[in-house]
Amino acid sequence: MLSAVETRSVSPVFVGRADELEALRDALARAAAGEPQALLIAGEAGVGKTRLVEEFAMAACHTGAVIAVGGCVEIGADGLPFAPFSAALRALRRELPDAFAAAAAGQEEELARLLPELGEAGPGRHDEEGMARLFELTARVLQEVAADRTVVVALEDLHWADASTRHLLAYLLRTLRSGRLVVLGTYRSDDIHRRHPLRPLLAELDRLRTVRRLDLARFTRDEVCRQIAGIIATEPDPAQVDDIFERSDGNAFFAEELAVAADAGCCTGLTDTLRDLLLVRVEALPESAQRVVRVVAEGGSTVEYRLIAAVASLTEDDLIEALRAAVNASILIPTPAGDGYRFRHSLVREAVSDDLLPGERSRLNRRYAEALETDPTLVPADQRAMRLASYWYHAHDPAKALPAVLDASVTARRRHAYSEQLGLLERAMELWDAVPEDVRARLRPLDHAEAYPACGCDPEATPLRYLDLMAEAAVAGRLAMERERALKITKRALRLLEDDPDPLRAAWFWSQRSRLVQALARGDGWDELATAQELVRGLPPSTVHAEVLTVAAGWSMLHKPGAEALAAAERAVQYARMVGARSVELNARLTLGGLMVDSGAVDDGLAEMRRVLEQAVREGVPSVAGRAYVNLPSELESVGRSREAAALLRDGAAYARTYGLLDSESWVWGNLSDSLYSLGEWDGAAQAAENALRRGQSAKPQGAAALCLAHLALARGEVTEAERRLQAARGHFGSHDPMPQQWLPVARIAVGVAAAQGRLADARAALARALDAGTPPGTHRYAWPLLLAAATAEADALALPAARDGREQALDRVLATVQKLTTAAPIWRAHEQWVRAELLRAEGRATPATWSPVVTAFEALERPYDLARVRHRLAEALVTEGGDDERAGATELLRLSHAVAEHLGARPLADSVAQLARRARLPLTGPAQAAPAPADPAEALGLTTRERDVLRLVSAGRTNRQIAEELFISPKTASVHVSNILAKLGVSGRGEAAAVAHRLGLFPEALPVRTAR
User: pTM of the prediction?
Assistant: First the structure.
């Protein structure tokens, strides 16, 4: 697929680069083995990056690899959005039509943003994750195409890459996990100055261990000698080699130009600069050929033949002769598709372009624009709007440029190229004052910003206003993650609105500013939201009004939950319904449902959230559906329904991945980690938290994931690791936007870490800070674990004389908070009993009667670790009583607790159980002493009704498939139940589980034993 044009000025001998070529071959071999590879090839202009890629591509083709090349296309100073990826995908589709069609099946409408030939791109949803959805799909297509064959994607000239291309490349290289894929990128290292837009991306990729960088050095004298010999087909004169090496300084392209010039008899000593050297062969062309070369230089990286013909104003015969002369002189080369021309090296194009006079440059751009307006088919459809806007802009004709730039911004938005849309809108604002009033009067609102035309303007009759441009640009900046630029635009807009008041638009800009302030860690955004609410107060219902109320309700849910937040959410739903703002309504209802659950209306709130999820999925509103997949399972977990939450979260992870909802996916994984922790599936919890860290783009979901890992590490006795993760979480959360769902869990881990390190004073201080910040209504799910950690720390320190000072105050503070918290769900009633029991233990007054109801409460819940902990405390109290019956009961409780602790890797609990057993001389293995049998042994073991049914069948020798058939569940679900049963019984296999069931007499009526089929 790399069809290099053979010319006399390209050495037939590939010189040097042995180490670099070996590194590329190694990457190819690794990719062929299923390990995707990413490499960046850096070097100054002319050093030989493209030649190295060509040599590698030819070698890769011989191994059966498929090569797809895409270059960044420059038009004037502008780059086409996604140009290298579009070209590479187009090449893959051409080479592997069936595989590409299978990978893109069902997603053609979205992929059409990159490949218009796939069909009409749908309107789609434009939100913060719209671009991520496209990125995820692109990465998935590449990985699926490369699943059964080795594919090399080469992206050239990344120093010209547009922002959208840079974002997509960063996403691809961050998420590359599977497929026989090699991704190569080349860029000019000498162009990457301190403020170059590629520089931050390079810094980010340097931090990825999966990306290797190859830096191409200049040639040595010996390599220049071999290069010259290949060009002139004879051994060069040593003096000539010395001269060319000295003048080129080892740059391969300059050495080649000097060698050709010398061999042709040119007096290279007359050229004072390298730019002059590059122009020597251009100036030797016939005048018509020089004219054509100048035309092509201003047209862009690649210019179509028909467009050159329209601009050059030559007869067809004269044009062909001029092009032939330029090609024979190795200045221009035909494009691989044979429909246009480009410069053999971009350095020559830059030299020719720099040599144009200012008036000449603008005249050529005008002719390009006029030709394109006359016949739009002269360029590919996906490039037309962008190129026309660039040509008119560089023609210095504001009246023509402004409409073209606005059209191009619409095209960029349709492709989710929000960075380019922002740049074009900023260019439109720059042009605005220079455009005649009558031209501006014919322009109409673009109708893309979230508040337009809902602010009351009629797009058919109302001219476009400068403020409308600013609104478009603010949204584009936010979606492109160019938040600083977007914030500056909103500030300027609000200053303009001070002189020309428009409360509805001002409210919209304040709402945007609130989101940007939070995202930039400049504050919590409430002051801006409060201003927006004040502006819409008393105005007729509108989309802006509904949106402001919805955002405010969502803010209150996270920062100040309670009755006021609930009322705000109800009002937001009402306004959204009145104005028919469906997506706003769904968001408001989701917030309302969560607040209902937190206020005690659990069933009604969960039902409403389920309806929102179903409707958002059915109606194709991914942003709301993604949020619902986060919030609904979170509320299920908050009322102890972890199994339901985990199942829904697994569906949510797949949905978020499909739609590229990166932050939603990160939240989903973090919530799944919490639920799996509760269910005693700690290895899965750790993996889910790691997934959350890897997939998250924003700080807060990564902070939540770090807290999950801190919680796990603390429970496993890895205190140093827990402390490290805690600090990471604090760093992610920052201090600019405090929320109860952050400060209460952070305090819980801080108390646990400090207590484990013997720093009780620090643990008390962490508790005090968190309680001082408050436990608003609806935050009980975070407050109960914090109070439990604090009460447990005090109880564990009972015997320490140094802990006496301050103990009474700490216990009083915990008890006072206990009396305020709600216990609307069984899980929190159980926690209340547990905290009160720990408070009594902290005073030395706990008895078996204290702990027995706590154990009973947790036996009804699916919380194996919590059950093991309270069983340990009951056993401890029984041992203190000292009777034979108590000792027998303690032995069984300790065995159960120890089995769970060992299974989970909960080292502190396992050690505490073992220590108590040794102290009381109770065996943790072997037959247990006779103990009073519980009324229901299965319940005492913490088995759910379904797990009891599964254990009955396991005892009868059923396989997972047979269990699934008899209970009408899937074999995978049966396997999960069996794993949970083994953990709760503290056994390692099905036979041991059956033996425990038999010993406890769980199933006196035996089922017939069946054999596996």
Answer: 0.75
